[in-house]
Amino acid sequence: MANSIERKALELALTKKIEEKRKIAKDIFQIAYESGIYPYSINDFYMARGKGAFGGFTVPAINLRTMTFYLASAIFRAAKKINAGAFIFEVAKSEMGYTDQPPIEYTSMCLAAAVKEGYSGPVFIQGDHFQFNHKKFSENPKKEEEGIKAIILDSINSGFYNIDIDSSTLVDLSRTKTIEQQELNYKMCAEMTNYIRQIQPAGIEVSVGGEIGEVGGKNSTPEELRAFMEGYKKEVGQSKIGISKISIQTGTSHGGVVLPDGKVAKVKLDFDTLKNLSKLAREEFGMAGAVQHGASTLPDEAFGKFPEMEAAEVHLATQFQNIVYESKAFPEALREKIYGWLKKNAASERKEGQTEKQFLYKTRKKALGAFKKDILELPDDVKEHLTDEVGAKFEFLFNKLNIAGTKDSILKYAPKKPVKIQLKEEHVGVHLDGEGDD
User: Fold this and answer.
1) What are the distances in angstroms from CA 374 to CA 70, 109, 132, 365?
2) Beta-carbon contacts of residue 187 (< 8 Å; ≥ 6 apart)
3) What is the distance between the alpha carbons of residues 356 and 378, in angstroms, rounded to a whole number?
């Protein structure tokens, strides 16, 4: 089974035709279902945490930008060692584009990996940073709204039952009152929540996340959280289930701050803000807590703090990409080919005063789609070495985030039998752009 599911996964990943991807995905979904594996929502589990049912851990939400089938396999191996179930696979709207991973492919890679590793139970697939573009929204709000709805529809049709809405880009700090600053943010988040509730499959309550502070901006405050939730709850309406968590800003930035020598600067993260807003989110609004973005490049000693602060979720991405690119096992010739491509094709993204190392560090994620085939067709021993390196990091993080033993709790809030997912034939064409990823 392991070899056959890997062949199917690679065939799906490498075909360019979305219709063919969906056809192969049907087979993978069926095999997963027969193996007791199914995509599901973490909403009920998060709502139980909001009521104080359990705590003391932080759920890792992991963005896989390359070698998704192989790295997802490493995640399941790490999880099985410690009986973990509280972990999420995610991909941002922007990442879908530059990594060449439409939603149906991403879900299929994760399910195929679960089959390969003999995992069973719910698998949480999340749309990360379904982000509003401030400039485009200002020019044509309706068009930008419809674009976000299109990617939500495509994602839910592909088994993404966890969606993070990022309308924090619409916060207007020039306005006087905090609730006025958050107005467009809570209105758009509420509109997208209501849309999700309209299209979600029967029997599945999609977990929806909101965001009050754009990552890289000023640190979030209790006043902002309360203002956002006050407006949001009115807009959503009393009869609908709202968001299960709230993303905040505590001092990080996506991908980290890159120094001239290409190394990532150490960040002073405001753990007090994370602790206080997580507590407020649970006690006043019944959510699981606050979410930390842009955390994968933090120093190792920081990760044990997240469970202590009762952070609900932490988003991790860039570190895993970095391990692959910087590994001694990654072919030097391919790395140089990629960097040469970036110098030509991403030249317009080079900022004034930026060193070459800074430029390559910040842009190399944009080459992963263009060189997807080259990476997936690396020799098996090279892929195994890269997977083992990243897998060691997963094991470290899972232990630091204290998710050992969470599989039992997860299963209490999941169906007793596997959920049969009926994939729809149609694919919703969407334009993917934006900068929101971790």
Assistant:
1) 15, 17, 32, 15
2) 231, 235
3) 27
User: What's the CA gap between 188 and 435, in Å, rounded?
Assistant: 18
SS3 content of the chain, % helix, strand, coil (to 5): 50, 10, 35
Domains of the chain: 2-329+374-412 (3.20.20.70)
E strand map for 147-293: 162-166, 207-211, 245-248, 290-292
Q: What is the largest CA-CA distance in the chain?
A: 61
CB neighbourhood size of 222 (10 A): 15
pLDDT tens by residue, 227-238: 999 999 999 987
Helices H / strands E in the chain, number of each: 19, 9
What is the three-class DSSP state of 421? coil
Is residue 70 within 8 A of residue 387, CB to CB? The reply is yes
For all residues of the chain together, what is the average pLDDT? 92
Length of the chain: 438
Asked if 33 and 420 count as a contact pair (C-beta separation under 8 A), the reply is: yes
CA-wise closest residue to 378 among 118, 67, 16, 55: 67
Who contacts 168 (Cβ-Cβ below 8 Å, separation ≥6)?
A: 185, 211, 212, 213, 214, 247
Q: What is the 3-state secondary structure (H, E, C) of 321-344?
A: HHHHHHCCCCCHHHHHHHHHHHHH
- 126: closest CA among 99, 157, 86, 88? 88
- What does the DSSP assignment read for 17-69? -HHHHHHHHHHHHHHHHHTTEEEE--HHHHHHHHTTS--S--EEEEE--SSHH
pTM above 0.85, yes or no: yes
Q: How many CB atoms lie within 10 A of CB 71?
A: 27
pLDDT per position as a tens digit, 13-27: 999 999 999 999 999
The rounded distance, in Å, linking the Cα atoms of 298 and 321 is 14
Beta strand pairing call for 121-131 and 245-248 = unpaired
Where does 327-428 have alpha helices with state H? 332-345, 356-363, 372-376, 380-400, 406-412
* Residue that the structure tokens 């391990």 belong to: 323
Distance (Å, rounded) from C-alpha 105 to C-alpha 46? 26
Token pair of 402 as six digits: 């204290």
The tokens describing 125, both together, are 């697939």
